[in-house]
């Protein structure tokens, strides 16, 4: 009779075997380097179906996990920090490849700790920690812990949960030899910060370290971003067909949300729907306003596939368009094309931003008042990553563009009629040869939906 196989023990990290000051940087020649983004610039950018298949390579999620963790370790190694403690859900997913319901995004009730060459430690909400032990084999089982601190003040600091969590973190930092080095944090509840400081830990900004790690997207990340953009292409076809007098902005939002989830979106974060007299100034929301003949209407699709975001504007008119509407759209497109043409690796952001109009050209008194209308922002697990290019910041803090960055380019131009406005946004991948647009719904000329 065959002997029953002995069950495999989960991988455990012995802290005595970790040298916190020996960090990963590059792999020797001939060895697999998990921090290599593996770009395939000689091939078209991939946007495969979302099912996994055995006859072609699509997204390699294990490779994705290893890349993101290696990028974080490399960024940590270049910093003065001994460890990173993150509460931002995008940072936590990037490091640990864990995620729970979208409801947790603003609760600060999950956190992740990474030190040197150690494996990620994850504190999660109740039974989610047990779920990770069963379904996240890339994490040591003894590194998945239940955790709760304050839930944004719902649990009083008097209960002592902040002090308990801080002590757990401090003990790990001691065991892994980095308690005497600064601890980087991204966002945190004040009582948690105070509890860590009370234990003698020096807390510094860890968000910049994480943004450094996340700025270059791997082949797998670019594929996921391109798949998310392809979903937006389809939703815009539905919007184009549905834009008729009598339809409400909110109905368009409902239809688009349903369609995204049908296609596999894991979070529809927001959809802006703005029409008619609401177009200028841009309110960044939607209402129950009825669409009317001749309205200009623009939309923003903010959703994610496997965590990777879209930020995708398109403008339409309904039935017909006026000369003022065409003129505004033409200007917005010229600014867009000028910015995209300037995007190349090695170019500084203070050069790119010159393609955008000054605030006064679009009727605003300052660059602060006009912020977010004509600018670029990085895309990834977060909606605003590096690079962020605008007249508000880029002249003061120029930043060199690099191949493998993915970002959105946005333009806005109010029309001379005082109510209409054009809003365009393209998502681009920065290749060695320049920017490659991945948002493909036609936008070179003003689209007229259900033309009379």
Which second-level CATH architecture of the largest domain applies? Alpha-Beta Complex
Largest sheet: 6 strands, mixed
Hey, roughly how much beta strand do the residues contain?
15-25%
SSE order, as H and E? HEHEEHEHEHEHHHEEEEHHEEEEEE
CATH domain class of the largest domain: Alpha Beta
Summarize the structure.
The chain has 452 residues and is of the alpha+beta class. It is built from ten helices and 16 strands.
How would you characterize the overall build of this protein?
This protein is an alpha+beta fold and 452 residues long. The chain has two domains: 59-214, Creatinase/prolidase N-terminal domain (Creatine Amidinohydrolase, Chain A, domain 1); 219-449, Alpha-Beta Complex (Creatine Amidinohydrolase), CATH 3.90.230. The protein is built from ten helices and 16 strands. It has helices at 61-78, 89-96, 127-135, 161-175, 190-198, 207-214, 219-242, 249-263, 323-341, 349-352, and strands spanning 83-86, 111-115, 121-124, 144-146, 183-185, 203-205, 267-275, 296-305, 308-309, 312-318, 375-378, 385-389, 406-414, 421-431, 434-437, 448-449. Helix 1 (61-78) crosses helix 6 (207-214), helix 4 (161-175) crosses helix 5 and helix 7 crosses helix 8 (249-263). The termini are far apart.
